[in-house]
Write a structure and sequence with these properties.
The chain has 195 residues and is mainly alpha-helical. It has eight helices and no strands. Helix 1 crosses helix 2 and helix 6 packs across helix 7.
Length: 195
């Protein structure tokens, strides 16, 4: 019985596998059909997880994996059938190769996007905002300024700020609330702009 002919390259997805003649074609077709029925669902779920749900691309990878399994029968002993682990490894390698080819394009596109959408920094407006913040915070009581500094400037959580200040967490929450409310009351024009 003649074996399938290897072409030296795997067919691209959507391309038919090389067609050997006679009985080999029938046995190849049955072989691939059997693999498809047994492994298609698990392979599709596995590949979909790797590429985050692009169903059509995942289907292409599964078909390519099954074609490669069929082409590998020429190098294996008679009666050889690939295990699911073998098929998943082939699918995994196909996805990795694809990701490596796609990554440079995605990085260049991302850099291009950042270049064109970067916000310009206006030093005068930054200086004006700082002046306003210093003035607004200076009008708060020391405990309110202190808690806002720990929570918003240093980025501490409520419990961390409470530990640093030596006060209960509930007091940090209360002082933060009252300090913000006082800032909004004294500077309603900035509250509207932020909303």
């Amino acid at each position: 019985m003649p074996r399938p002919v290897r072409t030296g390259r795997a067919p691209a997805s959507g391309e038919a596998p090389p067609s050997p003649s006679g009985e080999a074609a029938l046995s190849g077709d049955g072989f691939v059909r059997g693999l498809y029925e047994e492994h298609h669902g698990p392979l599709l779920r596995y590949v979909s997880g790797l590429i985050r749900g692009d169903r059509q691309r995942a289907e292409d990878f599964v078909q390519e994996t099954l074609v490669r399994a069929w082409l590998s029968t020429a190098d294996q002993p008679p009666g050889w059938s690939p295990s699911r682990a073998w098929l998943m490894r082939v699918a995994h390698n196909l996805v990795i190769d694809w990701a490596r080819r796609e990554r440079p394009h995605a990085e260049i596109q991302h850099e291009h996007t950042l270049e064109h959408h970067a916000e310009t920094v206006d030093p005068m407006s930054q200086a004006e905002e700082r002046r306003f913040l210093v003035h607004a915070l200076s009008r708060l009581s020391h405990p309110h300024r202190e808690v806002l500094f720990y929570v918003y400037v240093l980025g501490c959580t409520g419990p961390d700020a409470a530990d640093a200040l030596g006060i209960p967490p509930g007091t940090v929450k209360s002082r933060t609330h009252h300090a913000i409310r006082e800032l909004r009351r004294r500077h309603p024009e900035h509250t509207q702009a932020a909303a």
